[in-house]
Amino acid sequence: MLDSQFILNKFGFLGSDFSIEIQKHAVITDIKAKTEIIREGQKNKFVPFLMKGSIKVFSLNDGRELIYYYIKPNDSCLMTFSSIFSDYKSRVYAIAEEDSEVLLIPVSIIHEWLIRFPQINRLFYGEYEKRFVDVMNMVNDAVFHKLDKRVLNYIKQQIAVTGNNPIRLTHKEIANNLGTSREVVSRVLKKVENEGEIIQTKEGIKVPVN
Fold this sequence. Notes:
Strand content: 15-25%
Number of helices: 8
Number of strands: 9
Oligomer: single chain
Strand order of the largest sheet: 2-6-4-5
Low-confidence stretches: none
Mean pLDDT: 84
Largest sheet: 4 strands, antiparallel
Shape: elongated
Helix content: 40-55%
Structural class: alpha+beta
C-alpha cells in the first residue's frame, strides 16, 4: 500500500479513479545518499516523484559538474519527464544528496495517463516553472556573480536543501560543483570567513543566522 497522504496531497485533484491507478502501477523505493540514480545516455524507465530527501540533477564536462537544480520533496524531475517524448534517454545525471524515498511511475503508464487524465499536465507545467526558475538562477549566478558570491550562494543552497547548518562540504566538492579548483575554493572560503559570512568548524561550514 502506497503512502495515501502523499498521493492525496500530490495527485488528489485528479480524482479517485486516478488514485486507484497510481496504487496499481507506482512503486516506492529507498535510495541511499550519494547513490547515482541515472546517468547521461541511460534510458529512462520511470518518472520519479520525491517523497523524502533531496536529489541533485547536473551535467558533467571534463569531470566537473554543472548543477541544474535540486529536486525537493513533492517535486519531480522535469528533464526525466521531457525525455519520454523523444528517445527516452537521459540528458542529465541525478544523484541522491541524502537518503531519499522516491515514488516511481513507469513512463509507459505516464503516456496512457496523459490521454486518460489530461489534467495531469498541471503537475508538469508546475514542475516546468520551478525548474525554469532554477536554471535561470544558475545561469545568472555563473554569468553575473563573482566566485565568492557563487560559493556563498552554493553553501546557502545546500543548507536550504538539507536543513543542516553547519553543513559538511569539502572544498573539493564545492570546487567540482562550481567548475573551479579546490585551491581557489579554499582561498575564497577563507576570504568570506574573514568577512563574517561563514564560520568553518569541525562540524562543517556554518552560515550565521542574523
